Structure formats: C-alpha cells, structure tokens
Amino acid sequence: EGARDVKSDADNSIYLVMEYFDRSLEDLLRKPSLITQEIADKIFYELSCALDFLRTANVVHRDIKPSSIQLTADYRVKLCDLGMTCISTPNTIRSVDNMSKDEISEELNQTILKRREAAENMSHLTTTRPYRSPEVILLEEYDFAIDIWAAGCTMYEVFAACSHQKEKPKVLFSTVNSYDSSSSAEANQPHLRSILHTLGFQTREDLGFISNPLSLVFLQSQQKAIQKQKMRQYLPNTP
To answer: So where does this one cross the membrane (predicted)?
Structure first.
C-alpha cells in the first residue's frame, strides 16, 4: 500500500506518489481534547500490529515517535520515517540433529560472525532522544526491544492526552533530551538514573529478569534513592 504511482519527467527525475495523510500522531497530540479512550485504544492496537509486522520481517525501525506515526481519518496507523531502519539478525541457528562436530562448529562460527556484523551495522545514533531505551543510552547491543520502548513512551503521551485533555502532554523522559551520543556509557548514566526515578522503586521481583550481575548491582544501588511510587500517578484517569 506504499507507492500508488511512479512518475518521471524530462530531466529523468523519478517521483513516487504516496498515500496522503493529513496529520500525524504529533498533530493529534496538539489537540488532546479530540483523543477519546476509544481512539487511544485503537492507536495502541494499530501501532502494536505495525511493530509486530516489522518484527516478523526482522526489521528494527529505530525511530518510533509521534511524528513518525501517520493517521488516517479513521485513526489507522501508518509508520513512516523508515530511513533509520536496519535488519536484525535472528539469534537462532538451525537444528544440530544429525550434524557432525565440525558442522556444528562451523554453524556456530558463522552465527557469531553474522551477529558481529549486525552489531557493527547497528549505530547508536538511533531514536529521537526522549524515546531512547536504556540499552541505547548505555551504548549496548540492542534489538527489537528498543522499538517497544519507544512505542511505550509514545503511547504514554496518547493516554496522558486522553486522561487530561487540556494541553499537549509532556514526554515521559524529557531529561533524556540532553543525551550526548558522543559521550561514554558512564557519562550518560545520569539519564538512566532519571528513567529509574520516573519508573519508581523496583522490587526484587521486578528486577528478577536481569541476568547481568553488574547491571543488577547498579540498579540495586540506585533503589536506595528512589521513592516508592506508581505509574498510575502519571495517568490518573486511565482505566
């Protein structure tokens, strides 16, 4: 459904005729009184479907934000701004049944090489700043999860607009605006701390999925200075 037509002129310039959208999600957020719970739920569903489609194609969008989400008149979502997309190499190898040791070794070596090449091609100059995930901020390897993070930040704004309906909602992690992509991971840790304070105190069960011992030590050290709070305070009127 992308290009509707292809035209050229005497100068051999090529023009792609694309589907027309008269507004983006960013435009809609400037008029929060128009966003009902039903509309917010539909945008959430449509965006989730779009991200699932990209995931099945091993594509990471890397720049999910309100202005990259176009809306039809009936609030169907169309993702645009695909200039930063990249292909993510699946972290899987074929079955080792009936394979010799040499074949298994070669398969593993090829998988490692593919992952290294993919990591080299995945720049950390991704995602508009307030929507950057912790792994991008810390200059670590990332995957489809960064799109989910950015989509979550985006949908917060949609549900906040639905909840308050007075003025354009603020971005959830606005302090990440000052993120410096040229800095070291250590220099950018204050932005991670800002995210942690916004999310609030995390219990041991909340941190149970973390397998990296150094990451766990860092997060636990930050918990001492974080107040217990609930995300509900940011969206008081949302079901």
So the answer is: none
